Task: structure prediction
Amino acid sequence: MRRLNVAIIGGGTVGCGVYQALRRNSGLLVARTGTHLQINHVVVRNRRKQRPVRFSERLVSTDWKAAIRDPKTDIVGELIGGTTTAKTIVETALKLGKPVVTANKALLSEHGESLFALAAENGAGLYYEASVAGGIPIIKVLREGLVGNRLNYIYGILNGTCNYILTRMEAEGGDFADVLADAQKKGYAEAKASLDVDGLDAMHKTGLLASLAHGFWVSPDQIHVDGIRQISQMDIEFAGKLGYKIKLLASICRLSTTGSRHSAKEHQIQVSVCPTLIPQSHILASVSGVFNAIYINGDVVGETLYYGHGAGHGATASAVLSDIADAALDHINHQTVRVRPFTRHTSEGQVIPWEDIISEYYMRLTVADKPGTMAKITKVLAESGIGISSIVQPEGHKGASVPLILMIHDAATSAMQKALNQISRLNVVKSPSKMIRVEHFH
Amino acid sequence: MRRLNVAIIGGGTVGCGVYQALRRNSGLLVARTGTHLQINHVVVRNRRKQRPVRFSERLVSTDWKAAIRDPKTDIVGELIGGTTTAKTIVETALKLGKPVVTANKALLSEHGESLFALAAENGAGLYYEASVAGGIPIIKVLREGLVGNRLNYIYGILNGTCNYILTRMEAEGGDFADVLADAQKKGYAEAKASLDVDGLDAMHKTGLLASLAHGFWVSPDQIHVDGIRQISQMDIEFAGKLGYKIKLLASICRLSTTGSRHSAKEHQIQVSVCPTLIPQSHILASVSGVFNAIYINGDVVGETLYYGHGAGHGATASAVLSDIADAALDHINHQTVRVRPFTRHTSEGQVIPWEDIISEYYMRLTVADKPGTMAKITKVLAESGIGISSIVQPEGHKGASVPLILMIHDAATSAMQKALNQISRLNVVKSPSKMIRVEHFH
Result:
């Protein structure tokens, strides 16, 4: 029986989850992998912190350098998060040729290219299943399970906090700020909510998925991001009446050269994270609460969906254990790295600018309830070459100004933004005016 | 660049799908795996058969032995199906130490144990991702992605034909026989429908998943199987009114020793394939038409779901390509078999008899519409110790006999069957009486 030592760096939620799961299921892992995986270090910042798990005293230290350098350490788990110390930890381990398992999407999204290069130089593996949708083995699915597929599109609900907030707004009729405050009180949202609700966390994950799927590095600054702060209860209600739900949706779509709404070159993709109306009948619409899901269309396999918890100690620990098992198998098989952390397939990959995206839209205006209003609005749209697929003036709203919903055919985003600005300046239109993408997945 | 030759045995739907996909995406596979995978043989039974794909003439032969023995052949794809010639093909290749990729669930379910042993003896890999839910990389997910999890339960919709028929019965109100006949005409069901509608195909897949998940071999004869022939339009309607859908559901549940409805030993599992009422709000209820889905609860990861096409040339080809890529990586990495086809974890595994299963049930009776009927029925149930959770006498039924639905609390299957027989003999009860499992997934 081969024994391998794992140094866990980080005593937070994820570190505790991994420690607990690895201990509890060690017998199972021996049976399944033929390797005894044991923890030889747990590195924490504060020894005295109260934790849900009691670490074995002899394993705990505060010196990550010593833990990594320990000749007995075979595999390093970087589980502290952040992009400063975490980066140094990963680099230190890789330079010693030791495989690293990490759950750190921010680090990889920002520094992945250089870290992957460093891993390759040193012949060490860098494993990051836990960095995207922890409970869903999506990295393995993309790189191995769907290896024979060109990935036409990937749509994802990648942030559990946003999905939880949107689900509650829909179920209870609350407004964003109230639901967020309550979610923070209950521990479903961080005190600093920006990373989640402004879409940055989903952006990091989206960048990783896009890079893996399309074989060129997609950095955060190439991704259009819009969070959920601007989604009002009114939008959720109107979307519901029209047969839609609003989700914070990540989209990674290949623009095909034939039969497309776009005139595109090979290797052009569209990448974004933004609130989106999706049909209630679509399976992604049934993904509620803190759950994540990823919907993929491959040119060979057709449509597939993967669903699970995106975060939390259990989901993340499950992914980390899977990576540790992979690292162990690679290690005992002649220290090969079986599947490289990132493989470039193309030197021609391009993310097309957000303004050039063609999409359907939901437009919500607040307008004066008087004759001539509709004529003025539709004139602007007509002059912009934007087609309206339906107009809804919801019942039950009275007074000088009433809501008006326009559902818009395929239109370029730049044209939509311009038209919305023009419309907002009309004297019959009161603020706020709003546009939200609509996705029918075809 | 390493080149590996793949011999494809079988020129049917799957063989054509693999040929086409491997040719179309060969560049992508080179980039992703670092290996050039090329087809060196396509073995067919009939050269002159009309096929959707035109095989390169120089590759085609009718002699599978020669193709396997060809020293240039590195990997063998067994894609003919059946359990006779297919078995000889797999054995021949393994004895030569050549890795085999197969989509053949019947073969593996019936002869897996001996074939896996033969593979191990000869140091050759045996890959079978395509054998269960083709479009869903479930074998990889179970063995690698969730390697750190004890699998509490696995529920699956594993037969696309049955799901298609049930979905249409629900949507259109048709009866089983009519919908089946139409499905056969349209090519969604085989002329010989028994393998599908009697649950045997799902049984083969369930046996493989149960064996992998629980580490002991579960053979087909240990699995309780009931198909969908007996599901009537009336059951689908009543289930709908009560908030359920009827699905052909595979269940693989670990009986825990604590907090269970069952008094169970460690390593006891319940394995079945049968029509089941599931709540409309559960995500498995939104799996419609020919799609497959597998819902898994792992002790670390919590709940996860995987969804995709279960059959068809594309879905199966995607899985075969993934296995070919795995076989190729194993081959070039010193001819290791990285993940063994089957690993025994326990010598104490037991499938508990169907009669001992405790479950909720839906019971449908046709009864005389007269006083005293209910008293007689409930007396039998009370004497059997079976608790009723609700009674529904649907409206709109008139005449001497009317339908009556009883929803039953947890009851042992044997007690239920006995009670149903007694009830059916009451003079106030007309045939047919029926019981169907109900699953709430908790």
